[in-house]
Amino acid sequence: MVEAAREDDPQAFAAFLAENGSSVADFDGDGEIFSVLLPVLCDEYDIDLETGENEIVADIAEAREGPVLILTQDDKEKYFELLNPDEFEEDELGEAYEDFTEEEEEDAGAAMLEAISALYQALAEVDAGYVVVVTAG
User: Based on the structure, what is the number of domains in the chain?
Assistant: First the structure.
């Protein structure tokens, strides 16, 4: 996986994932929202999906120049219930976005809620034998 991320061909990593995995979550929004959402989840909700990252994830993220998460069984056990989209308020997420970025974005709360739904959907697919690779950007 790391080798595919380091390829000069920007499509090599996507091709590797397509050949060796399957799509488990739908997200049609701008992947850049995760650069705000992940720190907000950590700081405001004690949901730290980035701490479990290891050297492989760091290598992939550096090679791709974009966020990469690997969701594991441990993440599922810790955060699945906490990531239930029903537990979040769109207005509250919008305020957290504004606090983090110091910018007003009309649909930020909705975008963050959509991203939370995708993470929740992805985490539902994790088990002891399968991890989920989340890429954005």
Answer: 1
pLDDT, tens digit, 9 for 90 and up, residues 43-69: 999 999 887 555 666 666 666 666 678
CB atoms within 10 A of CB 15: 12
The span from the CA of 73 to the CA of 57, in Å, is 16
Task: Give the range of the structural domain holding residue 98, as residue numbers without chain letter.
Answer: 2-135
Q: What is the DSSP string of 2-65?
A: HHHHHSSSTTHHHHHHHHH--------S-GGGHHHHHHHHHHHH---SSTT--HHHHHHHHHHT
Q: Considering the entire predicted model, what is its pTM?
A: 0.80
